[in-house]
Each structure stands twice: as C-alpha cells, then as structure tokens.
Automatic annotation (TrEMBL):
PANTHER family: ACETYL-COA ACETYLTRANSFERASE, MITOCHONDRIAL, ACETYL-COA C-ACYLTRANSFERASE. Transmembrane segments: none annotated. Pfam families: Thiolase_N. GO terms for biological process: fatty acid beta-oxidation. This is Thiolase N-terminal domain-containing protein. GO terms for molecular function: acetyl-CoA C-acetyltransferase activity. GO terms for cellular component: mitochondrion. Coiled coil: none annotated. Gene3D superfamilies: 3.40.47.10. Residues 20-113 form the Thiolase N-terminal domain. Keywords: Acyltransferase, Transferase. It comes from Graphocephala atropunctata. Belongs to the thiolase-like superfamily. Thiolase family. The lineage of its organism: Eukaryota, Metazoa, Ecdysozoa, Arthropoda, Hexapoda.
Amino acid sequence: PCECGCRRLSGHRVLYHPADSRQQQDDYAINSYKRSALAYTSGNIAQELTPVSVPQKKGKPDVIVKEDEEFKRVNFEKFTNLATVFQKEGGTVTAGNASTLNDGAAACVLATADAVERLGLKPLARIVAFQDAATEPIDFPLAPAFAVPKLLEKTG
C-alpha cells in the first residue's frame, strides 16, 4: 500500500526537485497552454478531436463537448500568484502548473487485420510493440520513465 495516503501527494513528492524552481514550472506550464491554444486555433489537431456526448440528469438533453476549453480558462496575469497546493512552505505545485483532470485523456479503437478488412476500415496506425514497468506504489508517476527506454531498446 502507498504510505503517502494520496496519489497527488505522491506525484508532488516525485515531481519536486530542488533544481526545478516554481518559476521554471510556471514557465513550462504557460508555454504548454500556449502551444495547446495554437494547435487548436490553427486547426492542426482538428482531425484528432471527436465530440463527446455527456448524458445529463433528469431527462435533460446531453451536452456535446466539442473541444478542450482548458487553455481558454487560463489567466496568465494571475498564474504566478497562485497558492501552492501540497506544500505551503517551499512548495512549487499549483493549480496552474499541475496537470489537469483531463490531462492525457484519449480513446483508441483497436481491431484485428481481419476486422479491418471485413469492416472496410482505414487503419491510422499499427502497434508494433508495447512495454510496461512497475515501481513502488509511492513512485507510480515514474513508471513510464522506466517503460520508455525498455520499449526503445526492444524496437531498435
């Protein structure tokens, strides 16, 4: 079991590094928000976005979500004044520079070669290899850092 009691605190523990200042983390996050906005507004990712229907309660009509609006909600003037979330004294993680709840959300439809042919589908990609890695529970955010080099070694 994870001794930290909270996955977010575990993430803070792993991500905090004295060499990474609050300013560096804020700058990185701001740049990320700006790149996200540019990718969306330029249309570069239009083919990668699919509207999602979100059912509502009590017979209300579904809400159709067509875009990630996260980058539109960022107030860069207030960004550097946000309070730290997990560690008040010397903390660096804030609501602005931490990953959002939807960070990395994606869907992937897999099909066999037979199904692709039978259904007349056009494959967008082919999975050539996969890899996993495990760590102690408290270090879970680091697992991908161990999996990627193994995958690269496997695939050449």
